[in-house]
Amino acid sequence: MVKPVEQLSLALPSAAAMGREDFLVAPSNATALAALDDPRGLPAGLTVLIGPPGSGKTHLAHVWAARVGAHWQTPETLVDTLPALLSEEAPRCVVIDDAQKLAQTPGEEALFHLVNHLRGKGQLLLTAPVPVRDWGLLLPDLVSRLSAAAHPALAEPDEGLLAAVLVKLFTDRQLRVEPALIDFLLSRMERSLAAAGDVVARLDRLGLQTKRRITRDLARQVLAEDLDNPDPDAAS
């Protein structure tokens, strides 16, 4: 049997709870949480939160944004929103989720101006799956400023965290499953938070389509789909 964890975080589908009380802490995310919970604020007012897909970056960014009253900004609209963000009335704390999407777009220059604007008088939190050096940024000055920022990371999950993720995903979808099903899934699924979200979503969908309870038999059917349709980009 897997050992439960006290808390954990995940960017969840459906009606996922995104508050601080819903952020379940495990060894893989405790360091990042502590960095964003620091009452002194972000180091030098700028932080890049990194972690693999589905690791909880968005949830943790929401927690920080709610605590400090930050403006939530998407990379796709940064260029259009920039004039308002540079105004005197604009919030002094800003989050840009999936900030790596700004690379090699006009958003790079907009981000550069925002970094300079908030420097010394505000806070900027960026999230991305990889460190700044791997974004493919073209502006050397922007690379320099962002590379110097703190890069707290969300690590790959251990078995206890994955178990808690599965339980929470099922609960968020108002699905009741037996504890033995969690162990069954853990022993057979890809060991990542993104895979946990995908498996639960497919189990929910198949259960609704077939009007069957979510059991081992249903889980076997979903997991067999992965064997029948392997990722073409995966290493052989």
Strand order of the largest sheet: 1-4-3-2
Number of strands: 4
Low-confidence stretches: 1-16, 230-236
Q: Report the span from N to C terminus.
A: 31 Å
Mean pLDDT: 85
Which percent range describes the beta-strand content? 5-15%
Give structural notes.
With 236 residues, this protein is of the alpha/beta class. Helix content is 43%, strand content 8%. The protein contains nine helices and four strands. It has helices spanning 30-37, 57-68, 78-85, 107-118, 140-147, 159-172, 179-186, 193-210, 216-228; strands spanning 46-50, 71-73, 93-96, 123-128. Helix 3 runs parallel beside helix 4 (107-118), helix 6 runs parallel beside helix 8 (193-210) and helix 8 crosses helix 9 (216-228). The two termini are 31 Å apart.
